[in-house]
């Protein structure tokens, strides 16, 4: 179990050069954009345009801030994503274009290599105490807003906005959370 503090997240340019990404976690550690098995990041999208293509990768996107954007995903009906929308999963290797609704947005992006891994992204509201079952081998909890304390077995800690908790070998355990926060739970497992 590792706490990943917001101030330590790595900043890097988008693959297509159109903006900047804040990398929360990647595996293997220090992997580049072509060599990761999985990656969790946030990005500010300030202009309409195409998404970077990642061959062999599945992606899920959630809107964290802003008025939303429409995604034109090849072969699908355009989808409006807002802060109230459920996260949207789609292949990262087909053409996708983003059209902002009204100003810049910040998104949360989860990507896994399709031939070996699968992932799930869910939003969790914490208002007091909550027990969250961890069903995958690797889990990451991002505290988006507010603050929380957590306990898993004998380990305890606290997260502030922007911090994340990375739990490896998490399968069939629970995370006890207390606080007032909006969080996102990423679950990553072998196919």
Key structural traits:
191 residues, mainly beta, Jelly Rolls, six-stranded antiparallel beta sheet, 16 strands, 63% strand, globular
Q: How would you describe this protein?
A:
There is one protein chain. The protein has 191 residues and is an all-beta fold. The protein folds into two domains: 9-115, Jelly Rolls (Sandwich), CATH 2.60.120.10; 118-190, Jelly Rolls (Sandwich), CATH 2.60.120. The protein contains no helices and 16 strands. The strands form three sheets. Strands 1, 12, 13, 14, 15 and 16 form a six-stranded antiparallel sheet that branches. Strands 2-3-4-11-6-9 form a six-stranded antiparallel sheet, with no helix packed on it. Strands 5-10-7-8 form a four-stranded antiparallel sheet, with no helix packed on it. The chain is globular. The mean pLDDT is 94.
- Level-1 CATH class name of the largest domain: Mainly Beta
Cα-to-Cα separation, first versus last residue: 23 Å
Output the radius of gyration.
16 Å
CATH architecture of the largest domain: Sandwich
Estimated structural class: mainly beta
Percent strand = over 45%
* Low-confidence residue ranges: none
Number of separate structural domains = 2
Protein name: HutD family protein
InterPro entries: RmlC-like_jellyroll, RmlC_Cupin_sf, Uncharacterised_HutD/Ves
Topology:
Elements: E1 2-4, E2 10-13, E3 20-27, E4 38-45, E5 49-50, E6 57-65, E7 69-73, E8 79-81, E9 88-91, E10 96-100, E11 105-113, E12 117-134, E13 138-152, E14 155-159, E15 164-168, E16 173-190
Antiparallel strand pairs: 1-15, 2-3, 3-4, 4-11, 5-10, 6-9, 6-11, 7-8, 7-10, 12-16, 13-14, 13-15, 13-16
């Amino acid at each position: 179990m590792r706490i990943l503090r917001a101030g330590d997240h790595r900043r890097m340019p988008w693959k297509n050069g159109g903006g900047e990404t804040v990398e929360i976690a990647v595996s293997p550690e220090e992997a580049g954009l072509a060599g990761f098995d999985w990656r969790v990041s946030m990005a500010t999208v300030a202009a309409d345009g195409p998404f970077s293509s990642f061959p062999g990768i599945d992606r899920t996107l959630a809107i964290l801030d802003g008025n939303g954007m429409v995604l034109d995903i090849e072969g699908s009906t355009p989808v409006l994503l807002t802060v109230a929308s459920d996260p949207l999963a789609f292949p990262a290797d087909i053409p996708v274009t983003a059209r902002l609704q009204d100003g810049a947005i910040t998104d949360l992006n989860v990507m896994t290599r399709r031939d070996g891994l699968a992932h799930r992204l869910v939003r969790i509201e914490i208002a007091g105490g909550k027990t969250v079952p961890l069903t995958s081998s690797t889990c990451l909890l991002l505290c988006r807003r507010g603050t929380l304390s957590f306990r898993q077995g004998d380990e305890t800690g606290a997260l502030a906005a922007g911090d994340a908790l990375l739990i490896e070998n998490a399968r069939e355990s629970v995370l006890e959370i207390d606080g007032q926060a909006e969080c996102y739970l990423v679950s990553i497992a072998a196919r």
